[in-house]
Amino acid sequence: MLLSIGLILILSILFGNIFEKINLPKIIPYIFIGIIFSNKIDLSLINISAEIRKIALVIILIRAGLTLDYTVLKSMGKSSILMCFLPATIEIIGTLIFAPLIFNISIIDSLILGSVIAAVSPAIVVPRMINLINKGYDKVPQLILAGASMDDIFVITLFTIFMTIEKTGVVTLNQIFILPLSIILAIIFAIIFKYISIYIFKIIKDDTFRIIIFFALSLIILELEKYLPIASLLSITLVAMLLKKEETELANKFKITYEKMWKLFEILLFVLIGANLKISSVFDYGLLALSLLIITQIFRMVGVFLSLLGNKFNKSEKIFAMGAYLPKATVQAAIGAIPLASGVKSGELILTIAILSILITAPIGALFIDNFYEKLLQKK
After folding, report:
1. Local structure of residue 217 (DSSP, 8 states)
2. Transmembrane segments in this chain: where (predicted)?
């Protein structure tokens, strides 16, 4: 395992640096390294890939929570709420309509596929929006940052529900009410864990240990999903937001450390998802998958446009939001392989489309954000 990790890290950093210099996401070479060396990666590393995916999600959502500004979001009214679920919902509807027509798959498999590909990527969006906020482009990046984080949580919750339905074959009353209940519990536990964190921080003065403790508490929240119907990822983001509000200086120190932690887990996350891809599946589904992705992204942009109606965003800001909400990467890498591992009939198709969605939308979205923000956004 150690040899595999060493080679993965060295190659990923070298090629990722090359891609960054030409303004392309470094996750692209990470995925290809996983594809190329899939037969060489130690099985013991593959076996813990699920845990690595979870840790990566926790880190990126903590970073988002430590950056979000509640007062700015409040000033945007209904748009800040709609961006959390409407674009993803409309994209899933688009997948539900067209996936059975293109691939002849079942309704539930289409819903699972839709929930896998509907999430926007924190790996692409969060660092770029944080950078824009730091440059003084505050309003739209704050909206996108919040929406992207909550969008992922919403989609992952739907994914969990759809996977349960696929396994049991029935829709129960409990499953219908699970989403609002999970959100309420997420808020309650976020408040509880905020007070626990602040209490511990009064005892522990070393910032390094404080960061470790906060990370450990976040992992505990994540594992609560095994015992309670809680939207744990939402709760983790909210705890980070509440910590920032209470301890701004400490939160800023946390942000720096979690940014460094993300660099490591980002590599492992995308290399391992690449290692799971079968090249033959790309040739089998490639053009059809591309057509589905184009259709669903049109649906997604309609969802973003509708979310921004009735708010004081000009035309160029709406165009930026629609383009910035396209990239897919983190959630697709984190959950794309689960249907296949769980024996879902269309699991291989879902994984293939998930990876193709990363390879296609991540560079397009990243290039759009990096090259058009100055033309489309105004500084505060």
Report:
1. H
2. 55-73, 80-105, 111-131, 143-165, 177-196, 203-221, 264-283, 289-310, 322-343, 349-373
DSSP 21-78: HTT--THHHHHHHHHHTTTTS-HHHHHTHHHHHHHHHHHHHHHHHHH--HHHHHHTTH
The residue type at 215: F
| Mean pLDDT across the chain | 86
Residue 15's nearest CA partner among 1, 3, 2, 27 is: 27
Instruction: Supply 30's token pair.
Output: 């990470």
- Residue-wise pLDDT for 333-351, tens only, equals 878 888 988 889 999 999 9
pLDDT in tens, 276-289: 777 777 777 888 99
pTM of the full structure: 0.80
> Is residue 249 pLDDT above 90, yes or no?
no
| Distance, CA of 376 to CA of 176 (rounded, Å) | 40
Q: Beta-carbon neighbour count of residue 212 at 10 Å?
A: 13
Q: Which helix (H) or strand (E) holds 334?
A: helix 330-335
207/77: higher pLDDT: 207
Task: Answer whether 366's CB lies under 8 Å from 23's CB.
Answer: yes
User: Residue 34 class from Cβ within 10 Å (0-12 exposed, 13-18 middle, 19+ buried)?
Assistant: buried
Residue 243 within a domain: yes
- 163-175 b/e (C-beta count within 10 Å ≥ 16 → b): bebbeeeeeeeeb
Number of domains in the chain: 1
What is the number of residues in the chain? 380
Q: Are 126 and 146 in contact (CB under 8 A)?
A: no
Q: Summarize the confidence of residues 35-41 as an average pLDDT.
A: 80
Distances (CA, A) of 160 to 116, 155, 253: 10, 9, 34
Helix intervals (H) in 169-278 = 173-203, 207-223, 232-246, 248-275
99 falls within a domain: yes
> Residue 112's domain is classified under what CATH number?
1.20.1530.20
Query: What's the one-letter identity of residue 288?
Result: L
pLDDT over 70 (residue 174) = no
Name the residue range of residue 274's domain. 27-35+49-376
Instruction: Give Cα 303 distance to the centre of its chain.
Output: 18
Written as six digits, the tokens of 134 are 């730091």
Q: Is residue 17 part of a domain?
A: no
